[in-house]
Amino acid sequence: MKKFLGKLESKLDSSSSSPSASSGAPPPSLSSPPSCTQLYRYREQAGVNLGSWFSLEGWLSPSIFDQNGAPKGSEMDLLEKLGPEKAREVLEKHWDGWVNEGDWKWMSAQGINTVRLPLAYYHLLPGSPSSSSLMSRTEYEKYAPAYTAAWQRVVAAIQTAAKYDIGVLIDLHGAPGAQNGEGHSGLSGGKAGLWDSKDKQRKTIEILVALVGEVQQFENVVGVELLNEPKNSGRLQGFYEEAIKAIRGKGSDMPLYVSDSWDLSHYSGWAASQSNAGNFIVVDHHLYRCFTPQDHSTPATEHAKRCQPGGGGPTWNMLSGAASQLGGSLIIGEWSSALNPGSLQGQDQGEAQRQWGQAQMAAYTQSGCGGSMYWTLKKEGKPDAGWCLYTALEQGVLPARMGRPSLAKLLGSDVPGKGKQAQDAAFSGHANYWNSKGAKGDHAAFAQGFEQGWKDSVAFAQASESLIGFRGQWAKQRAEAWKREGGDGGQAWEFEHGCRQAIEAFKAAAMQT
Prior knowledge:
Layout: H1 2-11, H2 36-42, E1 45-49, H3 63-66, H4 75-82, H5 84-97, H6 101-109, E2 114-120, H7 121-124, H8 150-163, E3 167-174, H9 198-215, E4 221-225, H10 236-249, E5 256-259, H11 264-274, E6 281-287, H12 293-297, H13 300-307, H14 314-325, E7 330-335, H15 349-366, E8 371-374, H16 389-394, H17 408-411, H18 415-436, H19 444-464, H20 471-484, H21 492-512
Helix pairs in contact: 1-19, 4-5, 9-10, 11-14, 13-15, 18-19, 18-21, 19-21, 20-21
């Protein structure tokens, strides 16, 4: 990323460096280029999950269980079979081999700019002197010796990702007691015990505060996800609010991602009400169409039709509506091109998966989402275009570059001219609308915001070869800077609207070029 920043700074009027976003300092002035941290955090994410690297899943990496004669229900099954000392040897060998340098090179070449890294609390605490005491009274406490070297490997993964200009979303995949009844939360038995214990909930919040504190130093960490796929208990929203308050109370401006627990309508509205310039919240929705009886009975062509961009299908309407409400602060944190055999009856499997996979990719790039993360990078066994990104891209099930538009052609055209044309059209629509509502004025703040948003979009494209994905949050940040630099606070909403519309106009130009 630094090589791109050097190129960017030479193109912009100001060469002043911006304060680190992790310092808790105000965002940079309007004349400063985006910081490296901001480029990672705000750009549109083309991503993949690194499943079963740290948080093990028996169906993705069965050999580690089979070779040791352990059930595949959860990682705990492996530990109970091996004991702490042998488990450490087995786990460290797996951590050192599951994702290697060749994988990072391949991801970068495919246009991947962000990875989602599933972790559990026991991957952090045993190797963290400042928070190891939090392992007490947890299910994994007696197995802590197996994990003392886990965190140093997580840090190495973050640093390797940075070498390839890849951002990392840290995902708390397993909490004490388990936040859901699935084995990927770290426990077998099907019980979401986190929600039965106030002590475990308090401890989980302390763990999240510690986790954010550990990763805050890395400019390529794009955010921390508070819980993966939690059971939608009556405590979930309250837990989120308490966790966010605790993290922000430590002065952290880290973007915080929250799972919607498959209630996108509710959590989109809630997150929109909570977010502000100093509170960057992203909603994570997981979209699969292969698990329920209704999924099984729906043909692949119909699944694809329902999410086709602009088609008015229910999946498209759900995504585009939530993305608009959240100003882009929505990601599809897990999705796949997998389908149940019932959806494939009478159809060629490869072609059906291609239609389904590419319809999703088009929806995620065109609906206004901030990004998407395929599940998953790799799995053991025969090629699987439904669940393995390697296979899906190699077989053409997914489009090249994960559907991201190439920005080179747009940047090589008359960018200022396109910006002026887009600004004139946007300004006319904005002024006419508000004048008709009796809010007459010169609307200069809108024009200034549009100019800023277009300039910022060009900066992101030049520096990171990416669009701004989280447009609403970015516009809020810029509006705050505009007020601090002398703008009329009463007109900040117009500046924000202009900035957001410019970002959307730049993306539209990129998609059409």
